[in-house]
Amino acid sequence: MNFQVKIKEESFAARAVRVAEIAAKYADIVDAEGRFPREAVDAMKAERLLGIQVPRHLDGEGATTTEIAELCSILGQACAASAMVFAMHHIKLSSLVEHGVESAWHASFMQRIATEQLLIASATTEGGIGGNLRNSICAIEVDGDTCRLEKDATVISYGSHADAILITSRSHPEAASSDQVLTAFLKDQYTLERTHVWNTLGMRGTCSDGFLFKGEAPAVQILPKPFAEIAAQSMLASSHLLWSGVWYGIAVDAVSRAQAFVRAAARKSPGAPPPGALRLAEVSNLLQMVKSNVVAGLKAYEDAKTDPDKLSSMGFAVAMNNVKIASSETILEIVNHVMLICGIMGYKNGTPFSVGRHLRDAHSAQLMISNDRILGNTSSMLLVHKQDTSLLG
Prior knowledge:
Layout: H1 3-9, H2 12-33, H3 38-46, H4 65-76, H5 80-99, H6 104-116, E1 120-123, E2 141-143, E3 146-153, E4 164-170, E5 180-186, E6 190-196, E7 210-218, H7 227-268, H8 277-304, H9 308-311, H10 314-342, H11 344-347, H12 356-362, H13 371-382
Parallel strand pairs: 1-4
Antiparallel strand pairs: 2-3, 3-7, 4-5, 6-7
Helix pairs in contact: 2-3, 2-4, 4-5, 4-7, 5-7, 7-8, 7-10, 8-10, 10-12, 10-13
């Protein structure tokens, strides 16, 4: 039995833990230097984790969104940037898995992702519209069997390090801004001219620079379904849920550091409740709230997957938006609590209780996609839709 087969027989979690051990060794360096977490991504490939979502008949392992979210949380406890790369890859892969199986080219592409462990990047933002992914200025041009696209992509997640990019555009030059398609371009089918450098407060290792993208490829690489359908039925949910898995992982590691700090203080003063003990109990409660929120969201998504109408409904969109809002806001509260528990030892870098990186990474959560934009969308839907308040969903 060869090593690759042995890996497939192991649990996803066991494989992710090995990746997390490597990611943790380089997390501070990746953050300080703002460099791509190459060691962690190489480990993901070695553990065959980039293709686990691909269906089994295409040489993948048929992993569910719930299973992938768990791996995001494991990796998030080690290095948030590495975890976010993993999450973003699988968010894009979900679009292929849910909407590209019936296309011969995209099925073959998924098989390549699984066998060759290709890393897939995302290009949905654009100069002039920012992070409004449901609108595009650029348009793909189809000439016979060939398609061409030029896009001012102000952010491409780890664009310089990807093996392929899934990119949004208008479906043709005369199309409305919301009439979009999603196209897969392989690395040898496009050029990237850097226009913005990713020098950020946190999530520095995602290396999401801005580029002028120019691509030319066979037109069959355009996904056959409209992007509106892809976004509503897979990308919305997978983004909010897998991102939340990463954020939960950040919070788990921060709380673990706080617990270790309080335990150390208790050993020094036996019989007396250590400072920070009550705050630790509070932060444990908040952590459980995040977990419950994400678990409920994952269950709702898995239950709805067999019903396209439910996936496209306002009620489902509101539920997924709420998962994202609650997770992204609560983890900041958690890490702030941890900072107060650990005091100067949490504020300083290079201690076993340091949470500066966690805090800076956590601040990205409210910006991906902007919570204000999400709340605006939710408020519009609630004007015409009654929210489901049943405990049974």
